[in-house]
Amino acid sequence: MNEIRLTTEEKQMLSGEQGRATQKAMQILVALGNIYQAERMIPVSSVQVAGVSYDNLGEAGLQFLAEMADGGGKVRVPTTLNPAGMDLKNWRALGIPAEFAEKQARVIEAFTRMGINPTCTCTPYLVGNLPAYGQHLAWSESSAVCYANAVIGALTNREGGPSALAAALTGRTPQYGLHLKEMRLPAITFKVSASLTGTRDFGALGKLIGEKIASTKSIPYIMGVSAAGLEQLKSFCASLATYGGAALFHMPGITPEATQYDPPANAIPITQADIEAAIESLNNTLPSQVDFISLGCPHLSLPEIADLARLLDGKRVRKEFWITTARSTLQAANRLGYCRTIEAAGAKFAADTCCVVAPIQGRFTAIATDSAKACYYASAKNKLKTVFLTIDEVVNLAVD
Ligand code: F3S
Fold first, then answer.
1. Ligand 1 centre from 298 Cα, in Å?
2. Number of domains in the chain
3. Is residue 111 within 6 Å of ligand 1 at its C-beta?
């Protein structure tokens, strides 16, 4: 088995000449490169690190991060973080225990000491970490990885937390997988005849296609979708990655690499009835049982918050209602007056976090959301029943 080739500088990193944390980071990358038979390291333009919530990291994860910070680790490229386990400022109002908040703050402190921007979001491309077509990245969050590869045409594998951090501390990643052109070819075609509108429909499409490719991990070529905006695509990416483990898809007329490929033969049809069945499969309780409303998986964009303000204007919500988003999106929404309207209706913003990584297990019994990904994790992780609706329907349910 050939070992990965390193440049002089990379060898220095590995030998410890550039500090303990950089050495550890390069050891992680070399091990990964050798496992995947990468020939060399390549520079990355940006990094997005997952494994930020203390709920997922635990004590061992916190200790690893503290050691990397103590070892002099400093990021070499712009680096952002995935959602944390709580709103970093407003955690008390959202019922997060103080003991958890103290641990979470230590996690963020370690990342910050390494020079990482604590922009805790799964939509880094909405808040300043926006790659260009053809750039190599080391991103972790599955929905963002799919968005970066497919919608932007950047190149990234789905990194684990440690390998993404290692890429940030060295500015390198091993060249394998989706960094190679020949690994980005479509292998299966879908032909959609259904009419799709909002985020819920695109989430249902992602679930359907995801489940069909889950066992093979084939890259799908999806025909028949004539229009899809940013919000629909972020919903689709989250769902496709969750249900199918996909990190890339091609959609002619929508994604930039699709024109480079012919669709593989024998297209699998996706009909309106298929979409409706996928939606129904995520409705497993009555709307009257819902005691938790969650919007923002992936994190809401500013236009989505504007829509929500319009829908909630003058209304009053009667259930616990969380809106998850990036802090800088929240700040922009605040300046534009949307937060005032939404909070006057009784809904709560939870910036920096998401309902999957926040410690909410046991607090609620049933969730209503427009996100197929949120349904999956609400059920699998937090044991909640799910009601899968359009955003308008979610709001109607909340104010009933
Ligand atoms: Fe983002 Fe959490 Fe959903 S990380 S995609 S809001 S599960």
1. 5
2. 3
3. no
